[in-house]
Design brief:
Layout (H helix, E strand, L loop, with lengths): L2 H17 L11 H23 L3 H20 L11 H12 L2 H29 L3 H27 L2
Protein backbone atom coordinates (compact mmCIF):
# COMPACT_ATOMS: atom_id res chain seq x y z
CA UNK A 1 0.00 0.00 0.00
CA UNK A 2 1.29 3.47 -0.78
CA UNK A 3 2.18 4.90 2.65
CA UNK A 4 1.86 8.49 1.50
CA UNK A 5 -1.77 7.96 0.49
CA UNK A 6 -2.53 6.25 3.79
CA UNK A 7 -0.91 9.11 5.72
CA UNK A 8 -2.83 11.70 3.70
CA UNK A 9 -6.06 9.78 4.28
CA UNK A 10 -5.47 9.54 7.99
CA UNK A 11 -4.64 13.25 8.15
CA UNK A 12 -7.88 14.06 6.32
CA UNK A 13 -9.80 11.74 8.63
CA UNK A 14 -8.24 13.47 11.60
CA UNK A 15 -9.43 16.83 10.31
CA UNK A 16 -13.07 15.78 10.02
CA UNK A 17 -13.82 16.12 13.72
CA UNK A 18 -12.54 19.70 13.58
CA UNK A 19 -15.02 20.63 10.87
CA UNK A 20 -17.92 18.80 12.47
CA UNK A 21 -18.43 20.81 15.61
CA UNK A 22 -21.99 21.65 14.61
CA UNK A 23 -24.62 19.61 16.40
CA UNK A 24 -26.93 17.56 14.24
CA UNK A 25 -30.29 19.21 13.92
CA UNK A 26 -33.71 17.60 13.85
CA UNK A 27 -34.96 19.20 10.67
CA UNK A 28 -35.69 17.87 7.19
CA UNK A 29 -32.63 17.02 5.14
CA UNK A 30 -31.93 19.53 2.40
CA UNK A 31 -32.31 18.00 -1.06
CA UNK A 32 -28.82 19.15 -2.09
CA UNK A 33 -27.32 17.15 0.80
CA UNK A 34 -29.44 14.04 0.43
CA UNK A 35 -27.24 12.07 -2.00
CA UNK A 36 -24.12 12.57 0.12
CA UNK A 37 -25.96 11.58 3.28
CA UNK A 38 -27.61 8.54 1.69
CA UNK A 39 -24.24 7.40 0.34
CA UNK A 40 -22.80 7.85 3.81
CA UNK A 41 -25.66 5.88 5.34
CA UNK A 42 -24.95 3.03 2.90
CA UNK A 43 -21.25 3.06 3.80
CA UNK A 44 -22.21 3.04 7.49
CA UNK A 45 -24.83 0.30 7.25
CA UNK A 46 -22.55 -2.07 5.34
CA UNK A 47 -19.62 -1.23 7.59
CA UNK A 48 -21.65 -1.97 10.72
CA UNK A 49 -22.28 -5.46 9.36
CA UNK A 50 -18.64 -5.87 8.33
CA UNK A 51 -17.33 -4.76 11.72
CA UNK A 52 -18.72 -7.96 13.20
CA UNK A 53 -18.87 -10.37 10.25
CA UNK A 54 -15.80 -9.72 8.10
CA UNK A 55 -13.15 -12.43 8.30
CA UNK A 56 -10.39 -10.18 6.97
CA UNK A 57 -8.78 -8.08 9.72
CA UNK A 58 -8.13 -5.32 7.16
CA UNK A 59 -11.80 -5.25 6.17
CA UNK A 60 -12.88 -5.06 9.83
CA UNK A 61 -10.42 -2.25 10.54
CA UNK A 62 -11.62 -0.33 7.49
CA UNK A 63 -15.25 -0.83 8.56
CA UNK A 64 -14.58 0.60 12.01
CA UNK A 65 -12.83 3.63 10.49
CA UNK A 66 -15.64 4.16 7.99
CA UNK A 67 -18.36 4.17 10.64
CA UNK A 68 -16.61 6.94 12.56
CA UNK A 69 -15.85 9.02 9.49
CA UNK A 70 -19.37 8.83 8.09
CA UNK A 71 -20.77 9.90 11.47
CA UNK A 72 -18.49 12.96 11.36
CA UNK A 73 -19.56 13.82 7.81
CA UNK A 74 -23.25 13.47 8.74
CA UNK A 75 -22.76 15.88 11.65
CA UNK A 76 -20.93 18.36 9.40
CA UNK A 77 -23.90 18.20 7.05
CA UNK A 78 -26.21 19.06 9.97
CA UNK A 79 -27.63 15.56 10.19
CA UNK A 80 -27.27 12.33 12.13
CA UNK A 81 -25.92 8.98 10.94
CA UNK A 82 -28.77 6.97 9.44
CA UNK A 83 -31.16 9.91 9.10
CA UNK A 84 -31.17 9.95 5.28
CA UNK A 85 -31.76 6.23 4.85
CA UNK A 86 -30.84 4.00 1.93
CA UNK A 87 -31.83 4.05 -1.71
CA UNK A 88 -33.55 0.94 -3.08
CA UNK A 89 -30.30 0.00 -4.83
CA UNK A 90 -28.31 0.33 -1.62
CA UNK A 91 -30.94 -1.58 0.38
CA UNK A 92 -30.77 -4.46 -2.10
CA UNK A 93 -26.96 -4.49 -1.92
CA UNK A 94 -27.10 -4.50 1.89
CA UNK A 95 -29.51 -7.45 1.88
CA UNK A 96 -27.20 -9.44 -0.43
CA UNK A 97 -24.26 -8.61 1.81
CA UNK A 98 -26.15 -9.75 4.91
CA UNK A 99 -26.81 -13.11 3.23
CA UNK A 100 -23.11 -13.70 2.46
CA UNK A 101 -20.45 -15.13 4.73
CA UNK A 102 -16.73 -15.81 4.92
CA UNK A 103 -14.47 -14.80 2.07
CA UNK A 104 -17.48 -14.09 -0.16
CA UNK A 105 -18.72 -11.57 2.42
CA UNK A 106 -15.33 -9.86 2.54
CA UNK A 107 -15.17 -9.54 -1.26
CA UNK A 108 -18.74 -8.24 -1.47
CA UNK A 109 -18.13 -5.71 1.30
CA UNK A 110 -14.93 -4.36 -0.22
CA UNK A 111 -16.43 -4.26 -3.74
CA UNK A 112 -19.48 -2.44 -2.36
CA UNK A 113 -17.25 0.06 -0.56
CA UNK A 114 -15.23 0.69 -3.72
CA UNK A 115 -18.41 1.31 -5.73
CA UNK A 116 -19.92 3.43 -2.97
CA UNK A 117 -16.76 5.50 -2.54
CA UNK A 118 -16.55 6.11 -6.29
CA UNK A 119 -20.15 7.39 -6.14
CA UNK A 120 -19.43 9.54 -3.09
CA UNK A 121 -16.32 11.01 -4.70
CA UNK A 122 -18.39 12.59 -7.47
CA UNK A 123 -21.08 13.73 -5.05
CA UNK A 124 -18.60 15.39 -2.69
CA UNK A 125 -16.63 17.00 -5.52
CA UNK A 126 -19.85 18.55 -6.75
CA UNK A 127 -20.96 19.72 -3.30
CA UNK A 128 -17.50 21.14 -2.55
CA UNK A 129 -17.80 23.29 -5.70
CA UNK A 130 -21.38 24.46 -5.39
CA UNK A 131 -22.99 23.49 -2.09
CA UNK A 132 -24.99 26.09 -0.17
CA UNK A 133 -23.92 25.26 3.38
CA UNK A 134 -20.37 26.46 4.16
CA UNK A 135 -19.83 23.82 6.89
CA UNK A 136 -20.94 21.00 4.59
CA UNK A 137 -18.88 22.42 1.72
CA UNK A 138 -15.81 22.37 3.95
CA UNK A 139 -16.56 18.79 4.96
CA UNK A 140 -16.93 17.83 1.29
CA UNK A 141 -13.59 19.45 0.46
CA UNK A 142 -11.91 17.37 3.16
CA UNK A 143 -13.95 14.30 2.21
CA UNK A 144 -12.67 14.34 -1.39
CA UNK A 145 -9.08 13.61 -0.35
CA UNK A 146 -10.27 11.17 2.29
CA UNK A 147 -12.36 9.27 -0.25
CA UNK A 148 -9.45 9.15 -2.67
CA UNK A 149 -7.27 7.69 0.10
CA UNK A 150 -10.00 5.22 1.01
CA UNK A 151 -10.15 4.04 -2.58
CA UNK A 152 -6.39 3.34 -2.49
CA UNK A 153 -6.83 1.42 0.79
CA UNK A 154 -9.85 -0.50 -0.48
CA UNK A 155 -8.12 -1.55 -3.69
CA UNK A 156 -5.13 -2.69 -1.67
CA UNK A 157 -7.38 -4.72 0.65
CA UNK A 158 -9.15 -6.20 -2.38
CA UNK A 159 -5.84 -7.40 -3.78
CA UNK A 160 -5.21 -9.41 -0.59
CA UNK A 161 -8.58 -11.19 -0.59
CA UNK A 162 -8.75 -14.67 -2.08
Amino acid sequence: MDRRNVIIGMAAAGMLPMVTGVAAQDRPIEKTKLKALMGGDFATATSEVAATRATSRQAKTFAELEIEEQAAVARAFGSKPGAAGLSEKHQATLQKLQAASGAEFDRMYIDGQINGHEELLGIHKSYARSGDDPMARGASMVAVTGIQSHLVMLKSIKSTLS
